[in-house]
Amino acid sequence: MTATPPEKNDPKTVRGSLYETTRLVLLAGVGAISLAQEEVNNFLDRLVERGEMAETDARKLVREVMDRREKLEQERRERTGTVEARQPAATRADIDALNARVAELTRQIEALRRQQGGE
């Protein structure tokens, strides 16, 4: 017995695919942020080693960058929270109702196609 592969338009497959893609994008973003922070630190360390910047100035600059990043992150969270407060999340019943409606519309489309093909 061979298992049939899931259809491309199967809602479970699409949701799983979307979830995995979103997960990978977020992980890439976290990695990029981490790498950028590391690069900034390395760059400032090189400036200090060459005597082009005092160590205290480098630490101050890193702190300013970190504070600014944290402020921007907080603002983003507040904006996202505001949007979420205005738009409540779909319930499981909402999703099930939409899935049932999509299935019904799909059946109707297939029936119309059969009708047109038989004329």
Structural class: mainly alpha
The radius of gyration computed from the alpha-carbon positions, rounded to a whole number of angstroms, is 26 Å
Task: Please bin the fraction of helical residues.
Answer: over 70%
Largest sheet: none
> How many domain regions?
2
Please, how many helices?
3
* Mean pLDDT figure: 79
Strand content: under 5%
pLDDT < 50 runs, ≥5 residues: none
User: How many strands?
Assistant: 0
Secondary-structure element order, N to C:
HHH
CA-based shape: elongated
Distance between the termini: 38 Å
Short synopsis of the structure:
With 119 residues, the chain is mainly α. The protein has 3 helices and no strands. The two termini are 38 Å apart.
Features:
119 residues; mainly alpha; 2 domains; 3 helices
Description:
- Helices cover 82% and strands 0% of the residues.
- The protein contains 3 helices and no strands.
- The protein has helices at residues 11-49, 55-86, 92-118.
- The mean pLDDT is 79.
